[in-house]
Amino acid sequence: MPDVLAAEGLTKSYKGRCVADSVSFTVARGGSVGVVGESGSGKTTVARMISGLIEPDAGTVSVNGRARGHDRGRAARLRRAREIQMVFQDPYGSLDRRLTVGNALRDVLKRHRCGKTVAELMDSVGLAAELESSRPHQLSGGQRQRVAIAKALAVDPAVLVLDEAVSALDVSVQARILALLNEIRRDTGVGLVFVTHDLAVAAEVTDTLLVMYQGKVVEHGDTATVLRSPEHPYTEMLLSSAPGPGWRPEQVAELRAAFADSQEAADA
Amino acid sequence: MTVLLRPAGTRPAWLYRICAGILVITVAAAVFAPIVAPYEPSAADFAALWQPPSLEHWLGTDHLGRDILSRVIHGAQPSLLGAIALLAFATVLGVLIGVVAAWKRGWVDTVLARITDVMFAFPGLLFVVLVIAVFGRGPATAVIGMGLAFAPVIAKFTRAVALEELARPYVDAYRLQGVGGVELCLRYVVPNLLPTLAGYLVVLFGDGLMSLAALNFLGFGAQPPSSEWGLMVEESRAGVIQGYLAPAIIPGLAIAIVVVATNVVGVRLSDKLAVRP
After folding, report:
1. Residue in B172, B178, B276 closest to A111 by CB
2. Is the ipTM of this complex over 0.85?
3. Rounded to an integer, what distance in angstroms lies between the CA atom of residue B75 and that of residue B19?
4. Does B169 sit within 8 Å of A111, measured CB to CB?
């Protein structure tokens, strides 16, 4: 399948500290790439560079073979909006608290002159029609995230970036949102970039996985393969850090210490 | 024994209700002054100068024999309207400066911060004198001059809350949907700031009322025969030396009561409105 998104050599530094170092990957139409790593690994920076919320120091992002422009003006902004949309981690802060669900969706549809209706959009993300007149504070975390997804999908984007989009939700709600995302990418062909610290979530919704450590991609490959037989010690450590049957925190601490030592030795 | 302590800074509900009631009465007096006031505010009665409170004149009369109660009731309108106009002018200017500074950041923020710092450094009276020097004396110039002094306070407050608001993910979501900077600020961010700002403005209302009354007392704003409260205190000043305290004290009390009431109501409102989920 042709690539809808190509990120090439994305690099970003803050105050001399490199938070993303030559990050490159592609997303196929209807494909899903997971970006995993611990807090501070640079995955959110990558997500924000892709969506255009922050400017990379170096590197390019192309959508459907065309480099993302910086043209000013309403038409250019709307075109960029139809290229990439983003869903944020915080379901409480990512919706305008003044607007009802219906008005928030109507606002996007009107701006982009989309042929869809609010009812169709709500239905596509599994939101009950009676929630149309609800404001964000009247919704649960999962419902808010569905509204955020509906808003993002309203413009028919080529790529949807999800930055820890299910991290703030409880497990059962997470599962329903992940199932919805899989359904959406199958039905619409939207490419997903799924940023998460949760490997189980990544396994559920991504085909390809990028493992980031201190701004660098340390492992990149098919999600099932990376999770089954990790090659990099950091990936191994991440996998062993996930709680499960027989999980021993002290073993995780040992692995972490060994990994830190190996990195120090490598740096020296 | 259980000792229930009220958290610091909170006031009992009855105090809020009384103060809200005072404000309602004041606004009603301002609106319905011609109906509720027993006399014309500027009707002089030279046979009844400096009268003490009586059944005929509940709060007595002033140096021209005018009924003080009627003048206080009629004075509510220019006093309240003056403070509202002052705050409206200062709010438009302050919100504009604050939101632009928070949105643009960088050198724009620095330049606007320096300008507001310089404005802070001068007393409000100086702005009023400056505006009067250019446009002449009158209620409008007093409002504009004092509004210039209030604008930096509102600008600083707006900048702080706008910075917090602009950091919220919904703002990024709007940007990604192709909403331009001006539309984003005017249509989405400012309306979200208004509840927080409204609480603060009610608290500032008392300050505005007092500042305007002080200007009118000094003769910079309202002119006779207006029954604006600050001007009433000024006109009755001479009577204090002669022992006629009521004509000066009553409008002064009206100012004090309304200022305290707006502060109590404002603090309560800002506590409620400032909660942003």
Report:
1. B178
2. yes
3. 19
4. no
